[in-house]
Amino acid sequence: MKEKIKSILKSYPSIYHFVQNYYWKTLSLKAKFLRTKMVERKWQNRKDLITAKDFWLATNHLHRQLLIKKIESFSPISSVLEIGCGFGSNLYLLAKKFPKAKIKGIDINPKFIQVSKEIFSKEKILNVETLIGRADELGRFSAKSFDVVFTDAVLMYIGPDKIKKVIKEITRIAKKALIFVEWQSEKEEYDAHVGVWKRNYLNLLSNFFSKERISLSKIPKEAWPDENWQKFGYLIEVKL
Fold first, then answer.
1. What is the pTM (predicted TM-score) of this model?
2. Which of 134, 137, 168, 174 meets the CB 3.0–4.6 Å disulfide criterion with 149?
3. pLDDT digits (tens, 9 = 90+) for 33-50
């Protein structure tokens, strides 16, 4: 039905562009009004892309090797936490790389966590634990309890209402480093077309750390061959 309406509107270009612009502006206003809650509801209830087949396809994504290598640079690694772990593709790779480390992940979606537990049980991976949780609710973890805390395309879904609280909490529980794979931009803005926040991480993180501790490196084209990721994708590192 939506496609049929869209097709009819395209027959009237001026009307189509008016409706399209109105739609994107409405989404942007909705995001600014509802803030992070809007996205949390979306991800909490998401039920697609969580089969075992989806897990293995996601695990083979090339950018993950870049992320794992960066985490490995802080060896020896005894503990790692991923915020927004999905069904655990990064955790699986980390478990293979650091079989003796304590590896944990939290995600807002109960279905993701259920699938992750099933996969790790089937693969006989015993050093990974996945838990239901939000990025701004990390009180269950004690201070400095993980060598590295990281995110992979997660902070981009957290609005300005919560982002500083999330960074503060992540910093509290990390010992060696924070590592983020996110969208970097000169200014903070909501991209309604894809539903994410782009922000200047150097400016954001400078509220918590000296700039000498912060480094940003562009994600190579071959690691994430997507137009938006090629333009905005960065690996962001904070040495503690």
1. 0.83
2. 174
3. 445 666 667 766 666 666
